[in-house]
Amino acid sequence: MMEEYRGVWVFIEENDGAIEGVSLELLGAGRKLAEKLEVPLSGILLGHEVTKLAKEVISYGADKVYVIDNPVLKDYRTESYMKGVIKLAETYKPEIFLYGATPNGKDLASAVATDLSTGLTADTTMLDVDIDKRLLEASRPAFGGNIMATILCKKHRPQMATVRPKVMKALEPDSNRQGSIIEETLNLKEEDMRTKVLKIVKELTKKTNLAEAHVIVCGGKGLGDIHGFQLIHEFADTIGASVGGTRDVVEAGWLPHEFQVGQTGETVTPKIYFAIGISGAIQHVVGMKNSELIIAINKDPGAPIFEVATYGIVGDALEILPKLIQQFKEMKTEKGGEISYA
Amino acid sequence: MHIVVCVKQVPDTKIIKINPKTNTLDRRSAPAILNPYDAHAVQAAVKIREETGGMISVLSMGPPQAVAIIKKSIEIGADRGYLISDRAFAGADTLATSYALSKALQKIANEEPIDLVICGKHAIDGDTGQVGPGIARRLDIPPITNVIEVSEVNKAEKTVLIKRKQISGYELIQTQLPCLLTVEKEINSILYSPLPNMLRAARYEPVIWAVSDLGEVDKTQLGLKGSPTIVGKMFTPPKLEGGKKLEGSSDEQVSQLMDILMERKDLLKLKETSTAN
Lengths: 342, 277
What we know:
The complex is a heterodimer of chains A (342) and B (277).
Chain A: E1 8-12, E2 14-15, E3 18-19, H1 21-37, E4 41-47, H2 54-59, E5 64-69, H3 78-92, E6 96-100, H4 103-116, E7 120-124, E8 126-130, E9 135-141, E10 148-153, E11 159-163, E12 180-184, E13 195-201, H5 206-212, E14 215-219, H6 226-239, E15 242-245, H7 247-251, E16 272-276, H8 282-285, E17 293-298, H9 305-308, E18 311-314, H10 317-335, E19 338-341
Parallel strand pairs in A: 1-4, 1-6, 4-5, 5-12, 6-11, 7-11, 14-15, 14-16, 16-17, 17-18
Antiparallel strand pairs in A: 2-3, 8-9, 9-10
Helix pairs in contact in A: 3-4, 6-10
Chain B: E1 2-7, E2 9-11, E3 17-19, E4 24-26, E5 32-34, H1 36-52, E6 55-61, H2 67-76, E7 80-84, H3 94-111, E8 116-120, H4 131-139, E9 143-154, E10 159-165, E11 170-176, E12 179-183, H5 195-203, E13 207-209, E14 229-235, E15 244-246, H6 250-263, E16 268-271
Parallel strand pairs in B: 1-6, 1-8, 6-7, 7-13, 8-12, 9-12
Antiparallel strand pairs in B: 2-5, 3-4, 9-10, 10-11
């Protein structure tokens, strides 16, 4: 029975006529899995007036795109999207099905897994396959600690996982790539829907600033207390950076939740990332390790943050930060310049 | 209005330690607490009850010690508590958990129909957020995840207005009752529990059900047996090389760092404005 299930699928999340970055990243990751298993990679595209995006899905690595284009699917709703995805999965039987770990991706995958009675791994950060057993190896940080767990789904298909944004790498799009577009229909009536989306409000909050920031100064428990943490704000102000914090810092109330970097907070990829007084638990590292230049300051020479840091300073942040702030301030006054970031 | 809040006892992950030799969790190192998101869920239910009247039940699955978090929920303002506790539930993944909880919810609904189920966004020990939507599917009610505000609970029309957090911003959703919400921490702040609640909680004894109390249950869908996912292995990720350590006194370290940063003109530029003054 399980042999009927073949192929790797990626749920393509669309917002305002554009494909979410995480879906393109998953096409890149899914491409590798599909090649190892020697099966096609398919994109699953639902929405209203979305068929035009199918070519883009192919250019990022898909061999096939299954499309359901229906006005009822204009805005994401669990019940309508779930019906479409389940219909496709029951008809075409994929062995692996990946979703972005976004609010909608997680919501949809949870509902679909329940109806298909199959396994779902949340917030995966590493993906691989055991080729002989055709098993998806979905790994994720466990318990916010320094340990990863590989989750397997041996006896149920499809094997499903949600994957953190900004962890996998998208392929360079190739507009010459060939693929097939399969259009399916879904019998949905607006009057049968129990949920209505009345309004969508886009807010460019500080949270999004953190995700887009070029430079982030992120502080951890090593700053001692909320007063010590003020140095993080001062340093960030001085160099025009955004402020972030670890889960501990947020739990302690030194920073609001939207500033949290890590598995349960934001994943960030700035040009420069200062990790100050942060030990570097996996929970945190998965949220920042793809930053271009990482500078770590920590008292403990054995802290795991030094393994991901480009440059490390073993020392007391409370002693080093004021000096660093001083240096930047002097530089600005001496040269009368402003720091800018390329 | 009957609101049921699903709650979970979790180890306090802020405190829990990993045994560096075995890479396993030292559960004794962490106190067991009410999952913080679930505390917000109970608080959200209390606020709705203030407006609509009615009753709040809490439901948990766990070992007998989980009675403690039901008492905590009573402190916050819940009226009644149920714990399902049985060895048959042990080792459940999210699919098996949502099955067991939905069976208990059906039993509670037989006593008093349920208008609204509220869960925390996720539990801080598993961080999955999958059980809430799973329960909603099993009860065939709409799930709304990532809720940051609940307003206009209309008992007559059986509708509720919800703000749902999105990647950027939020969406305003109207859905039918009964439905299931999973709430973010932003939805409210936890207030100090009133003294009468604390007194009531201290002597409160929840209803405890075993599998045999839940009526018709497919035992193959419970616990480890009913869980499609298993943990294949635990590992520490391959150590990265790490970069260069800057040595010397703190002044020397800072000056080396400044040199490094100033050299990275691809990342950072000092815009030299007029030096006339």
